[in-house]
Amino acid sequence: MKRGALDGIRILDLSTVIAAPFGATLLGDFGAEVIKVEMPGVGDPLRNLGPYYEGEGLRWSGIARNKKSLTLDLRQEQGKEILKELVKKSDVVIENFRTGTLEKWGIGYDVLKEVNPDLVMVRVTGYGQTGPYAHKAGFGTPATAFSGFTYLHGYEDRPPISPSFSLTDYVTGIYVAFATMTALYYRDCQDGVGQSVDVSLYESMFRMMEFLVTDYDQTGHIKQRSPGLSGHSAPAGNFLTKDGSWIILVTSSDKTFERLAHAMDRADMLTDPRYHTNSERLQRFDEVNGIVADWVKTKTKDELQSYLDECGVPMSPIYSIEDIFNDPQYQARENIVEVEHPRLGKVKIPGVVPKFSETPGSIREIAPDLGDHNEAILHGLLGYSVEEIAQLKEKNII
Q: Which of 16, 25, 298, 370 has the fewest CB atoms lying closer than 10 Å?
């Protein structure tokens, strides 16, 4: 039985922590066989990142599902030879070592492509494989700042604010999955060849900010930080309801504002030259937001949600994770699913997205313990004997 749309694709995940491993997980969700290669006795540091419960790192279950764990020391010659044997039988290698590390070990892309000319290698670094910063260490939070994203967030009279979770890493992980599939499509559907793909953390965020680039190029305007959506549409922002709940409301088109104006019983704003177009409202952003804020305060959260849904105005309560667990939309879409953890019992993790009609993704395997699949891979895939596997373990190669 097929495991999903990517059944038959084998990926070697040499990467650690979040960005590149998350991309491999997305591919694993849709049927790719993902072999996670980890250092013996150490493993991916993500195994031990917080939050924690009963000594267990809780992130591992969600980000490492649908993977097999093989321990392998890539710094030792025999470890490199085993990697090459795996590369012969694989389609993709995903790695996020510092630029030049695999080349220094003698297992860079040029070497591995000689072993398997059809190999696709996706390489993730902070600043890319080229340029004056190529060899700098790169983590998600500094890369977020370098991308220009952090500069935009916060209040002008206070320090800039970094995202409160590893946003850039997860965004980059999506690029990793996208890049992998694009390269495989070229190789398999256009009579192409394997290739190396260069993905950087900072570029994944910078690519989403075209509004900054052209604005600065044409006007010289340097957009300053603000606590919410600004400079795009008005009204937009966080508003407090009558019962003390925070909601977010935005009108990204004049048609949407027309619906809101009628909902507020302020049809006069549609003919008033100060408010009738988005460009005019943007010049009076605080004033327009103030009008909306005063109106929102007259209704409870539930009243507002029901009324604006009926009027076709996009609005949402600002949810905590507790709100998410209790919401019927999340439940209906199976956005949170339950799996068995080897020590904690039943644990909940994010479900599979997006939803495919013919080849839906699935969670087939729980996140593995370190080296769980050593024997299955070395014996079952590569043909090593039980004795040979024992010898590799004695030498700390696995």
A: 298
Which among 44, 73, 169, 372 is annotated as catalytic? 169
What is the C-alpha to C-alpha distance for residues 23 and 173, in angstroms, rounded to an integer?
4
Q: Determine if the pTM surpasses 0.90.
A: yes
Q: Which residues contact 192 (CB under 8 A, 6 or more apart)?
A: 186
CATH architecture of 10-207+332-394: 3-Layer(aba) Sandwich (3.40)
Is residue 24 within 8 Å of residue 36, measured between CB atoms?
A: yes
Architecture label for domain 236-317: 2-Layer Sandwich (3.30)
Strand boundaries in 219-293, DSSP class E: 236-240, 246-250
3-state secondary structure of 349: strand
Peptide linkage before 354 cis (omega within 30 of 0): yes
Long-range CB contact pairs, 293-296, < 8 A, 24+: 293/239, 293/240, 295/264, 295/266, 296/239, 296/240, 296/241, 296/247, 296/249
Number of H helices, E strands in the chain: 17, 13
Closest CA to 170 of 20, 52, 288, 46: 20
Q: Each residue of 117-171: pLDDT tens digit?
A: 999 999 999 999 999 999 999 999 999 999 999 999 999 999 999 999 999 999 9
Domains in the chain: boundaries: 10-207+332-394, 236-317
